[in-house]
Amino acid sequence: MREVAIVGVGSTPFGRVEGTGLVELAVAACREALADSRVPRGQIQALYVGNFVGERLASQGSLAALLAGRLGLPGIPATKVEGACASGGIALRHGVLGIALGLYDFVLVAGAEKMTASPTPEVTAALATAGDEEREMRTGLTFPGAFGIIMREHMARYGTTREQVGLVSVKNHGLGAANPKAQFRRRVTLDEVLGSRLIADPLRLFDCPPISDGAAALVLCPADRGRDFHRTPVRVLGSGHATGPATLWETTDLTSFPATVRAAREAYAMARVTPAEVQVAEVHDCFTIAEIVATEDLGFFPKGKGGPAVEEGWTGLDGKVAVNPSGGLIAKGHPVGATGCAQVYELVRQLRGDAANQVRNAEVALAHNLGGTGVVSTVTILGRL
Amino acid sequence: MREVAIVGVGSTPFGRVEGTGLVELAVAACREALADSRVPRGQIQALYVGNFVGERLASQGSLAALLAGRLGLPGIPATKVEGACASGGIALRHGVLGIALGLYDFVLVAGAEKMTASPTPEVTAALATAGDEEREMRTGLTFPGAFGIIMREHMARYGTTREQVGLVSVKNHGLGAANPKAQFRRRVTLDEVLGSRLIADPLRLFDCPPISDGAAALVLCPADRGRDFHRTPVRVLGSGHATGPATLWETTDLTSFPATVRAAREAYAMARVTPAEVQVAEVHDCFTIAEIVATEDLGFFPKGKGGPAVEEGWTGLDGKVAVNPSGGLIAKGHPVGATGCAQVYELVRQLRGDAANQVRNAEVALAHNLGGTGVVSTVTILGRL
């Protein structure tokens, strides 16, 4: 397999983007990524797009083919992939494989979602399609509900405290405040988190991500040509993609996602990197508790120690591993199909050394994208070229 | 690139399948395909699923990951791809690439759609998301409307007659009558077609496909191991995937789809096959006129001669090239995400020699899948191993 480099990145601001539709968001991110690289547009041979509920919330299917035309890339194979909130990570996975396996030399990858133009109940219903409709969601379970159950179990089993979980929100909002692309730019205190409106006990409003519009895009090429197309190319060291149980009732351990564990194992093996070597990570904090679970499943901390790790500051910018320097889904925003690409957008900027919340001397970075309550996950490990 | 074989196929009956949901349809087709091959379930390394409007009509996203779990294939990378009505063809394309490029040895590919449980206006709205919502569909254009415009142009430019187009419906309903998996099992006369209800002038009811439920699935492995897993494996000779204009107003020629022409060129070159060598084809007759356009775009007949070819019987079972022996989308049914896989299901059975409407001595077969009004197309060429 050939090594792959990322030589261009782009991202719209995340948040409520009035008057801009799904396709236009994707176009904007792709144009920024293409302009950031020196790959001529005409060299792009394939396009992968991650998008979750475009047909439902934006009445737009065929997004990848449509986007290829809109970008002036006529004729190229263009594929939309969907794996709920992990759609962006799956799109990147396919772009990486296309180059690694020698099928293409230049691939454009994008993720996009338009959510704020729809009524909130319809957004909630659309997001719930990430779960098993016939066998679980039909009972009325929502994703805040599912992660509330997970949080309660984590607290009961490991002694994780409500305060430790809340500190994830304090950290991520603090980081988001300095990120110009983030949806929420205001720091919050632990008192504010713990005093915010109850959503799905014990999760409160500030434990949850917002409804967001946004898109992010990446330009890929073979690593041995990376320097021709960007002065600081970033190398894809490893990539993993795995599935897990679709429902809570099939889950044998509510505090761990097997899809994350498997995808991470695959990515670490390919990258020949250990969890201890990762200096900065963007993990799928679709809720505060999900960040703690992810840092354990990814091997940054032993099972049950993710809560104390937050309290000790080990996941802060100067910690053992800086987690979600972008502000994460909770503060940066979570346009679901875009998230997997936006995580890598942030990490490429970290490895280039020009991130908004720069981690010092970052050399190895990890992106973790999760769909549903763990039905699918991708893990991507990046390094300096 | 390694050569790829298809060693198992499965398909549900198409039509209104009461009480069976999207996931169960997909499970049924996959189980049949796995049972048809000798590939042990535990050997399957990846799953690709084509599905278009599952989030919208069945409240079910995450379909690929969900299906992997339901089939007892825990952990494997499972990816849903979406390209409107070409979703199934794109899923197959990715399965083929995964084996051809050496990433996997055994891949399961499926396509599925559940449409009949939703009110017809919602189905129409969901299907319209295949077009460009912001720049065309918002005006009120529907797919019958778009193909009515295409039919009118084909008639005006080439002298194609209303009767020639109607004969596609007569042929396909006649073939569907003998196909036990087809939704419509009744022959129709030309008078019935021409006297049926006007849908979008000049298209009438019997020029259109029904709303359908259904799923189809395929098991793939390297061609050099094909005989280990089926007594009559079928070889994938060529595969093409291309995009084209998303809207009618960007189309320079209303009577041809550049995506089809490009995908066919790629597939023919890879297969080293000429159009004249294709003996049997399943083409995307989402409307009668679409079959005529496809037979021209695929090079079976010169531009403008597709109408007379039908009249002369050249696309019949004993014709120059047997087109849509399954009954096509018009008679077999069109559960949109399933169609690309169902076409290949039929052709594999043709090449095995056990199809319901068997073409004598079929050795080279072609499947053509189209999304929207030509925004994306896949072409797959198959041969005996």
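qc> Chain A touches chain B through 62 residues (CB under 8 Å).
qc> done
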